[in-house]
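Troubleshooting: if your tokenizer reports a length mismatch, compare your output against this known-good record of 328 residues.
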Amino acid sequence: MNILFVGGNGHHYLMRTVKEEAAQAVGCACDGVDAEASANLPGRFDTDVPFFDDYHAAMDKLPIDAVSVGAVYAHNGEVVRAALKRGLKVVSDKPIATTWEQLAKIEALCTQKECTLLTEFDLRSRVNFRAAQQAIKQGLIGEPVMASAQKSYRFGQQRPWFYKDRAKYGGTLLWIASHGIDAVRFATGLELTTTCGHQGNVSKADYNDMEDHVAVCFAMSNGGSALVHADFLRPAAAPTHGDDRLRVVGAEGLVECRDDVCTLITNDAEARDITAMGSTANVGQDLMNALNGDQTYYNTVESLRMARVLLASRDAADQSDVREIPED
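Known-good structure output:
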């Protein structure tokens, strides 16, 4: 599979498949916003990969099967739309849209033609989160009642320039809280129907247009509740860059993901490690499998649904009010 990589601010998990020789990088391109970061893209490969200043030109000239999008966050949607218009398959870092207008244009393209649009929510490809999903699916905790998820990152010495511009950054909810929100949906299999939230910047004065924390509450489709919180406040001395957690409490037990382990406790049994219940996970391979038709973990429907959930949640957090999450 021939892949074009656009933008220097994303994870580009498909790079792993190129290095494993499961795909070929035929080009890298600037996202049209951050030329400096984009120019560093070719250096992330072990072989020479041609670079294009214009991603439109690259899409028109190169023999491409799929596009990996990792642009300045608010520009992901423009690159996604350009690829979909050309009938190309897309794997994009989140968010795939930072405005309702952007999302409407993407949804229109997906309605008009058969499209593949995958969003890189990598918690879906971690064995402990898959173990939690399997335990819940098998009814080991009974009906899910309450879910909570956490995404905490070190901030580091600095962040890219566009974090200081909300119009280009899009919001911390869309960038990191999105992982926890998706994890709740993925593990429980339940939809999120209403959302309310609060966010702010208490500690990062130099980045006053960026939220250093966000907390969002949801009603789940079965009447249960969920809470997701995210922050850029993980201490510098912490042993890892990120601290990702998920806890789902059911009528008969609970599952908890923490430190790469999934633990199950039920009314009938003490806490035990069930991580092995999760299938072998490799995010790059999972995305490649989805591009080739096995869309068990990543697919277009999930990408579009999550985009709606995230935009409604950000609106609710922006206004500190309650929003219905539109179904389509």
